[in-house]
């Protein structure tokens, strides 16, 4: 089975974005795409960097709000509590500048092509994660709630199942 090339992966993703009329900026030299997306409240947003190579389609979605130094410890705890429940990607914080991002990737090993469904799910995953967890993140960043309180609001007091009804 032939594997995808960096150029093919880049073209598949770019074609998907064009067909679905997404606005994005492209970096043809590095085979990267950048786009913004509003969260459900329309007041907050994320910026997404989509990187393509032969083996992975990588997504880094960055929250528009940065954590200040004094909130880093609590933000890290909140993100670790949230990450415990995730299976495809994770939240991270840059301890130098306080940037909070969600990262995920799609393994392309021995893939000859990517379907629109697979590209769409990979691209919308980070947006869905921020839509689900950003309110708790803002509470923790501002000091309004502890990491445990913010996570309990999402998953309930038992911290075992989330409000979407799935079991973790």
Key terms for this structure?
disordered C terminus; 4 helices; 6-stranded antiparallel beta sheet; elongated; alpha+beta; Yope Regulator, Chain: A; 168 residues
Radius of gyration: 17 Å
- How many strand segments? 6
How far apart, in Å, are the first and last alpha carbons? 36 Å
As for the CATH topology, it is Yope Regulator, Chain: A
Can you tell me the residue ranges where pLDDT is under 50 for at least 5 consecutive residues?
Answer: 162-166
What is the domain total for the residues? 1
Query: What's the helix count?
Result: 4
* Order of strands, widest sheet: 1-2-3-4-6-5
SSE class: alpha+beta
Biggest β-sheet: count, sense, barrel?
6 strands, antiparallel
Q: Can you give the mean pLDDT? A: 89
Relative strand content: 15-25%
* Dominant shape: elongated
Q: Note the run of SSEs as H and E.
A: HEEEEHEEHH
- Which range best describes the helical content: under 10%, 10-25%, 25-40%, 40-55%, 55-70% or over 70%? 25-40%
